[in-house]
Write a structure and sequence with these properties.
The complex is a heterodimer. By secondary structure, chain A is α/β, with parallel strands linked by helices. Chain A is built from seven helices and ten strands. Chain B is elongated, with a radius of gyration of 30 Å. Classes of the chains: A alpha/beta, B alpha+beta.
Chain lengths: 247, 433
């Protein structure tokens, strides 16, 4: 049974999509305890296009993973679209990821035995309430948005890096999520392709209205966002708002 | 459906490992099918031998305690003519279960050729029943080595001449009579039976040699004698019988019909015991042999299933380790742990299904070759060699296939559940194999 609050998102620009309060996370490396996040606070509004920057080991990926419900915090509160993730069990977290969050990985993470269409359709097959025709329409629309409508039957290993990342973006967006998380989405791409992917992410942000939060070292990407969150020693130590967002 | 497609395609990702796992499952299944084919063939052979060749019937009605005490005090444990008439009424009510019946009387004595006497353990049988038994299709199917063409050809002779007796080749040898017994004419085929009647008088009968049989059991081969019921009743001076054997139709349940019969016998006021061919005392040889085979079979099934199970555990574990990142990705896009489990059990289910089907085909071919080759062997305790035959049975194969499929699915679920338990991020950051 799908809780009503997990129904497909309808964006209200003033809504808070992500609320993080006093977040702590440590890692155990042998006998050494490494603090990754130390009481971090963060708010993200609906539709924001935000970059998370910081030095290596500053806690960017940890924060992204915690917001994406891929990992569990030691302490603190995370609310996604008003839902406190700590109150959810494993299955409810899976449903939340499926219905509210899209995840774009650095190395694309496509399933090699599925073609482009099937890879993008994958998150939708979990939606029991959805018909095959509805799944097909949404998948084709997502692939059209990323310019891969002519590559439906192609296998991932026959695509270029940029095309693979487009498939991954389409997969992240096909469920019409409220929040899209991306961990170094352009790190594995050449400069030209990275530029195209940045354009595409911005376009999707604008067209689909989803909130984008990504961590990156890519100056080209960082220079085109609306808001930059600087993370240092496990805390947000600076927020830079850029009104035009470079668009 | 999408999960089935994904599962099917995943099988092709590491073809060598998929193939080796399939071969292990198929080999295990072939082992199970051939083992069951041997046990099934032995069971059917022993059943046929016990029920028909040894005249025990599927069920046999004895006077209360008669099975154990008849030999010591036969006159007390005879089923009287009056009781036989009452019993006939009950048996006539069950044409759907009973194919035919036979009245029997057994006893011991001496058989003589005028020069030499040797002991016999004889069985008196109704000639019509004898003929029906010898023409029964189960004999040709399951015990062709223990039923001679001449026995079948001469089986109606007992009805024509109730003085005929059937002896084994070994008893013939002891009496100085060579095969075929039909070569003897006139005085040459004349033999005498002498015994103490059930009322302690000495009695003797003239009989004629003409028929041959084998018990299939080495220990019984030098003393076994079969004659007409009339001959034996005459010899032991009685009109009673020791037991009434019931030969049931294939569809009838022996245990079920036994219960029904016991109830009706009791209601009729008859003091009778009902024994089945697989009982501990009445079917001692069958019971002992099959118990041994079942224990041996269970041991081998345990070994085979253990090997298959380890192969599945190994293959699934490697598959999961290699695909940790992918499992993490699927979890990240919303797959629940149960979806991941169902993906893997589907993979192993498809693989097992293909392996089981291939194993069945190969088993049938092996069974055909073995049966065609006519290997002969002498099982312990049996008389003479018999053909080593493998008889596959579709019901047993189906049960074993389902068992193997369930075992594989259950094993997969246990392995997947254990390995995919960590947080999604751990799955995503695992380097894999």
């Amino acid at each position: 049974m799908i809780p009503p609050e997990m129904a497909p998102s309808k964006m209200i620009s003033s809504d808070l999509i992500v609320q993080v309060r006093d977040l702590y996370k440590t890692y155990q490396l042998g006998e050494t305890t490494i603090p990754a996040l130390r009481g971090l606070n963060l708010d993200l509004q609906a539709g924001e296009f935000t970059a998370l920057i910081g030095s290596s080991g500053s806690g960017k990926s940890t924060l992204l993973n915690l917001i994406g419900c891929l990992d569990e915090a030691d302490q603190g509160q995370i609310k996604i679209a008003g839902i406190d993730v700590k109150s959810l069990n494993e299955n409810q977290k899976s449903d939340l990821r499926n219905r509210k969050i899209g995840y774009i990985f650095q190395s694309f993470n496509l399933v090699p035995v599925l073609n482009v269409f099937e890879n993008v359709e994958m998150p939708l097959i979990l939606r029991e309430e959805m018909t095959t025709a509805e799944r097909k329409d949404l998948t084709e629309a997502a692939l059209k948005d990323v310019g891969l409508e002519d590559f439906l039957k192609h296998w991932p290993d026959k695509l270029s890096g940029g095309q693979r990342q487009r498939v991954a973006i389409a997969r992240a967006l096909v469920t019409q999520p409220a929040l899209v998380l991306a961990d170094e989405p352009t790190a594995n791409l050449d400069s030209k392709t990275a530029h195209m992917i940045i354009d595409l992410l911005l376009e999707m942000n604008s067209k689909r209205g989803a909130t984008f939060l990504f961590c990156s070292h890519d100056e080209k990407l960082i220079n085109r966002v609306q808001k930059i969150l600087r993370i240092s020693d496990g805390k947000i130590d600076g927020i830079t708002a850029i009104n035009s967002g470079g668009r | 459906m999408k999960l089935w497609i994904l599962a099917f395609r995943n099988m092709g990702r590491n073809l060598r490992r998929t193939l080796s796992t399939a071969v292990a499952i198929a080999a295990g299944f072939i082992g199970l099918v051939l083992l069951s084919a041997y046990i099934y063939r032995t069971k059917m052979g022993l059943t046929t031998s016990t029920v028909y060749i040894n005249h025990k019937g599927h069920l046999a009605l004895f006077k209360k305690d008669g099975l154990e005490k008849f030999a010591a005090k036969p006159s007390k444990y005879l089923i009287s003519r009056e009781d036989q008439e009452k019993l006939q009424v009950i048996l006539d009510r069950h044409p759907d279960e009973i194919e035919f019946t036979g009245k029997y009387l057994s006893g011991t004595g001496l058989i003589s050729n005028s020069k030499k006497s040797i002991p016999f353990i004889g069985l008196g049988i109704e000639p019509v029943t004898y003929a029906k038994i010898m023409h029964h299709p189960d004999l040709m199917r399951w015990t062709p080595d223990w039923i001679f063409p001449e026995t079948i050809a001469t089986s109606n002779d007992l009805a024509l001449n109730p003085n005929l007796i059937s002896i084994t080749a070994m008893m013939g040898e002891l009496l100085g009579k060579d095969l075929p017994f039909s070569q003897y004419q006139g005085e040459q085929k004349s033999l005498q039976l002498a015994a103490k009647s059930y009322f302690n008088d000495l009695n003797a009968n003239n009989v004629e040699l003409g028929l041959r049989h084998t018990t299939g059991i080495a220990l019984a081969e030098d003393t076994s004698l079969i004659g007409s019921l009339a001959t034996f009743q005459d010899l032991y001076a009685t009109d009673g019988i020791q037991y009434w054997a019931l030969f049931l139709k294939p569809a009838a349940s022996v245990a079920g019909f036994r219960q029904v019969l016991a109830r009706e016998v009791k209601q009729a006021g008859l003091d009778l015991d009902i024994e089945s061919y697989n009982g501990e005392i009445w079917g001692a040889y069958y019971n002992g042999s099959m118990s041994f085979l079942y224990v041996m079979g269970s041991f081998f099934i345990f070994l085979i299933c253990g090997a298959v199970l380890l192969s599945i555990v190994n293959s699934t574990t490697l598959g999961i380790i290699e695909r940790m990142k992918e499992i993490g990705t699927l979890r990240a896009i919303g797959f629940r742990p149960k979806h991941i489990q169902s993906l893997f059990w589907r993979e192993n289910f498809i693989l097992s299904l293909i392996a089981v089907f291939s194993g069945q085909v190969i088993s049938e071919i092996i069974a055909l070759i073995v049966n065609f080759a006519h290997f002969q062997f002498e099982p312990p305790g049996t008389q003479g060699k018999i053909q080593f035959m493998l008889a596959t049975n579709w019901k047993i194969c189906l049960v074993m296939a389902l068992f193997l499929l369930l075992l594989n699915v259950a094993t997969t679920l246990v392995v997947v559940k254990k390995i995919t338990r960590p947080q999604v991020i751990k799955l995503l950051t695992e380097s894999g194999a």
